Give the backbone structure.
Amino acid sequence: MERANLDWANLGFGLVPTDFNVRYTWKDGVWSSPEVTRSTDLVIPMAATALHYGQALFEGMKALETVDGRVVVFRPTENGTRMARGARKLLMEPPPLELFVEGVTEAVRLNRRYVPPCESGAVLYIRPLLIGTGPRVGVGPADEYTFLVFVTPVGPYFTRGMRPIRVWLEEDVDRAAPNGVGDVKAAGNYAAGMRATAHAHEQGFDVVLHTDPRENKYIDECSAAIFFGIQSTGPDVKYITPQSTSILASVTNDSIMTVARDLGLTVEHRPVEITELATFQEAGCCGTATIVTPIGMVQWRERAFTFHEQGKVAGPWCRKLYDELVGIQTARIPDRHGWLHEVPR
Ligand SMILES: Cc1ncc(COP(=O)(O)O)c(C=O)c1O
């Protein structure tokens, strides 16, 4: 299949139309067979629970071309498991894991010509979506669900590449509640965080870092990425990343914790107090879209914490973790943990 004619090296993180999407519906207790369509529209009842009561969950994943020309999806079963957990929390029908992986694999296979060339640094972003489509006026779960998968080729989330970003520590706006749904990809979490991000952008910051919603004492996570700090005291180097009930269970962070251990770092996954920022030599954020992005500075009230030589260049551990993760994803480095799911032709 000939590759689509796109300017791969200059793609932004936007929506580029592709050829097909894949859909399933759950009705009368059973999931349908996959429906492949070219239509990007969705016809649903105006009383669908997704629209009124927030029964909506999504996932963000990626497919890449490896150096040896294969197309792979990174750890799809992790995303499928997270979506199922989210569905159970929102009383939605969870798509079975095999159905989830089938939908994702088919959506990539059918749009293979949009998988960017390996050397471009761009990827095919995969967006699975689960919504309550059954109509309801009283508050309660729908009796019908749609699970669909579309894909779009994307470039870097932060156009600064490995240049460190500027971060605003947000205490006033919470994206999630302590015992809420912040640990899963509920659509409403993102609406809740939008005004904090808009405010941070107005002040000249790239991204928001939320504090914990219970005490505002600990670091939670960024608006669409996980925070980490690197602490090196002599030969002992630590990868420290927050644990909290309101943080998304990130597939990338889980992978980086594994990679960090492989590289000989000590991993601490625990509550991280804001004041600990002063003890990190490097800081960064990670996620499917952001990969590993160095943080140059965090502004907390009147106080600025800076990392990476006054925030100007990425530190060595951020680079090493980036290289190791992307190396595995593109098969430059052996897939020693079995993370790559190959898409058949
Ligand atoms: C709020 C939030 N936190 C963290 C992440 C990172 O999660 P993952 O590594 O699974 O992409 C994301 C998505 O990328 C996110 O939206």
